[in-house]
Amino acid sequence: MPMLWESILIFMVHATAVSSDQHRNELCKGNRDEFGFTLVGHDYKSSYADNVGRCFFLCSTDERCQSATFFWNTKECKMNRETKASRPADFVKNPSATYIENDFRAKKGSTSSTPGSSCKDILISGDAQGDGKYWIDPAISGDPFMVFCDMTTAGGGWLLVSRFVMKTHDSFLDSRVESNSYRTILPNFNSNKQFLFTNGFSQMKQDTGFTQIRFYCFKKTTGRVFHIMTNNDAKGSDVLTFFTSSDNQPAACGSFTRLADDNSTLAERCDRWGFPNYNTWGHTSHLSDLRLFDKPAVWRNTIRVWFAGDAAAEYDRDGDAGSLSLGDTWQVFVR
Ligand SMILES: *[C@@H]1O[C@H](CO)[C@@H](O)[C@H](O)[C@H]1NC(C)=O
């Protein structure tokens, strides 16, 4: 059976190359082969191959294989989970190697055999196909799972971490999916009540290396959208530290950017956030495991972000606390 596939594949490669004037040596290689280069640190398997064409064949018939390096001296064919596009820093010169890309490869994130490490990783690899479900395996555990990626908002690459949505009038009565394990929480993107605790969020930061958090809240009764993302700089990084591993309340102003649809009063007034001090994230009485949802941003006695996922969930409180309407949405993403 493998021999048959090999014949068909070689036929296909020849058929596409015959019309060009390429050198004979290039006939059995992919379009994206590069002599004198290799990708280091992402190989999962090594096989013997007589020649570069055989290495190309081995890679293109292994569903995990994104690219391979053929070493001319040792005739070793090293197969990689990544490509030079997804890991440019690891694409290096090597005079006795040829880098080959699998032209038949499954897009990263599209199958459980080719998981990304995060939504951002899939986006950077050029394999994003709109908002939706993707496979990831942040810890390279060999046990991937499916998550929801927002690949369009503010440049895309956002992994949905937590949310509460009023899908029906009784949504607030649904049981919460809550855990300290991101593996448990992230695949529950269809649940309208998923909450990841601080320790799990911290573990996730270690494994995926996310550098930004995005908060989205909409509450119909107040008619405002609160939509911000932390900046990808030192001030934004302090906010990530607060939500993963420290009780020091970081500065609010200068730590985030408002997104195009944000029309909230809260995001306008970062100078009023915080307790006991102004211009800070969080509230000193709410530094628990739940801080990502429990008053991450508070304007004392005026407005607060709080998505507890029960009747008390609220945003932009203006005397009318608590009441929920269909479509009210609280979401947290990272990238
Ligand atoms: C804020 O934006 C939302 C969503 O676009 C819209 O429904 C709402 O009317 C806006 N509110 C104000 C006060 O402009």
UniProtKB/TrEMBL annotation:
UniProt entry keywords in alphabetical sequence: Disulfide bond, Signal
Domain Fibrinogen C-terminal: 110-163
Coiled-coil ranges per UniProt: none
Gene3D superfamilies, A to Z: 2.60.120.1000, Hepatocyte Growth Factor
Keyword Disulfide bond: yes
Keyword Signal listed: yes
Domain Apple, first and last residues per copy: 28-104
UniProt cross-references to PROSITE patterns, sorted A to Z: FIBRINOGEN_C_2, PAN
One Pfam family here: Fibrinogen_C
Signal peptide: 1-20
Protein name: Fibrinogen C-terminal domain-containing protein
Lineage start: Eukaryota, Metazoa, Cnidaria, Anthozoa, Hexacorallia
